[in-house]
Amino acid sequence: MVDPHELLTLAVDIAREAGALARTRRGEGVAIAATKSALADIVTDADREVEALIRARLAGARPGDGFLGEETDAERGTSGVTWVVDPIDGTVNYAYGIAHYAVSIAAVTGEPVSAKWMPVAGAVYDPSLDEMFSASLGGGAWLGETRLAVGAPSPAGALLATGFGYDPATHEGDLARVRRVMPLARDLRRAGAASLDLAYVAAGRLDGYFERGLHPWDHAAGGLLVTEAGGRIGGQPGDAPGRDMTIAAGPELYEQISEAVYR
Ligand code: IPD
């Protein structure tokens, strides 16, 4: 039996420590260490160092758990819990000196990302603003001590966010989707950190979010924040968020975004 609250306490503690390290390294100056699959797919030494810290802390606290992180090899566990980690989500912002980035840590049960995938605890920590977004299955979504609920969009239009996949071949499709969704919007953001986009939907700072091409570490913790705040996340047949499409919003707007995305 997993205790989501216990997993969440661990995720929050480690996210705070990892965020402090990311903030310190950013203050010392950040260089791009490597470009991976595409120009926008980069890694800094800080991404690697922060992931190593998170991995070591998790292994120390719960040696039987699996691990799936953005920067290192995945490892299967024996406990039925896997940690899904983005050490620095928003690496392009981070590397360019833009303060909008986050540490994202989720505990999931079931194979990531299968039909049985189930995030049970998640922390998204913004070190720049010292904001800790957290959620556990059945325990609600929180910003610090404040319980979160998705917003009700103004009839005048919703504040939406999106992102663009790494692969330039997908950009035409991304832009066509933006054109179809824009009539729903008061305005649109491309802020550059998917976990914070999702946390902001949970907090009612954004009404909705859609993006193609996310990885599990981008949406695992943020997705739980959205559902625990009364929203919906999905996008693919079967309604799991995933590589093909992730949509997050309150239930009514979710349907409208989904209709526009797939029109
Ligand atoms: C990226 C950011 C970005 C989103 C990309 C992600 P990373 O994560 O969340 O906002 O548009 O799809 O891959 O690479 O900075 O960890």
Automatic annotation (TrEMBL):
Q: Reaction(s) catalyzed by this protein?
A: a myo-inositol phosphate + H2O = myo-inositol + phosphate
Name its GO BP terms in alphabetical order. Answer: inositol metabolic process; phosphatidylinositol phosphate biosynthetic process; signal transduction
Identify the keywords attached in UniProt to this record, alphabetized: Hydrolase, Magnesium, Metal-binding
Supply the EC number(s).
Answer: 3.1.3.25
Cite the Gene3D superfamilies for this sequence. 3.40.190.80, Fructose-1,6-Bisphosphatase, subunit A, domain 1
Q: Which cofactor does it need?
A: Mg(2+)
The family database entries (InterPro entries) matched by this protein are listed as: IMPase (IPR033942), Inositol_monoP_metal-BS (IPR020583), Inositol_monophosphatase-like (IPR000760), Inositol_monophosphatase_CS (IPR020550)
Name-wise, this protein is Inositol-1-monophosphatase
